[in-house]
Amino acid sequence: MYLKAYSTFEFTNVICTSMEESFSTFEYCYLKSVNRTYKYGSLKVKLLKLPIHKIKVNFALYQRLNGYKPFLYNVSVDACKFLLNQKSSPVTAFIFNLFAPYSNMNHRCPFDHDIIVDKVPYSYINYQLTKILPFPEGDYGFYSIWYADGIKRATVNVYGTLSYPSRCSCQRSILQFIIIVIDIFEWLQWLNRGKRGGGAH
Fold it and tell me: Which Pfam families does the entry link to (predicted)?
């Protein structure tokens, strides 16, 4: 018997910081809640010195345990080399695919345009974190540091909560099922005893 644990990921905050505004500025960086079931994140960074040929990124995943602590991934990658062959690093590919389908970054260097990540829905992140690579419930921080020409240019930190709201009801259902099975088993035993007793007369 296979039991599904339905999970929910929800963005809680996003913080974008430009280290050198003569090089890049964030035109916008926000979360938006359209309704109870649809919430997304978007950002746009305006690049002021184009084209960019050398890009390095540090991705790190943190889980909140008495403050945010490193969790599983802390990866630095030459982005231009990675974009030439995305199969070269499965971990980087997993992290990149958390936002790549909603961005204009999925091409080879150089970059000669502004960077846009448009309306990444929490449902998509939820799928990635629970179906592709299951994560335990909790509060998470996804930190990224962006370098160009060897200089730290920007940081983007995304925060969210992963929960399993149906876990308790699932456990209750399992317990109820076990109780029913035990009741049926005891009833069958009683019925058998009755038949044997009836045959003795």
Answer: DUF1091 (PF06477)
CA distance 41 to 30: 6
Give how far Cα 39 sits from Cα of 8, 32, 123, 167, Å.
12, 6, 8, 23
Coil, strand, or helix at residue 152? strand
Q: With bands split at pLDDT 50, 70 and 90, how would you rate the model's confidence at 190? A: low
Mean pLDDT confidence for 152-161: 95
CB 124 within 8 A of CB 1: no
Confidence of residue 11 (pLDDT cuts 50, 70, 90): confident
What distance in Å separates the CA atoms of residue 114 and residue 23, rounded to the nearest whole number? 12
pTM: 0.75
Query: Is the distance from CB of 154 to CB of 23 less than 8 angstroms?
Result: no
Residues ≥6 apart with Cβ < 8 Å to 54? 80, 109, 148, 149, 150
- Nearest-CA neighbor of 143 among 76, 56, 60? 60
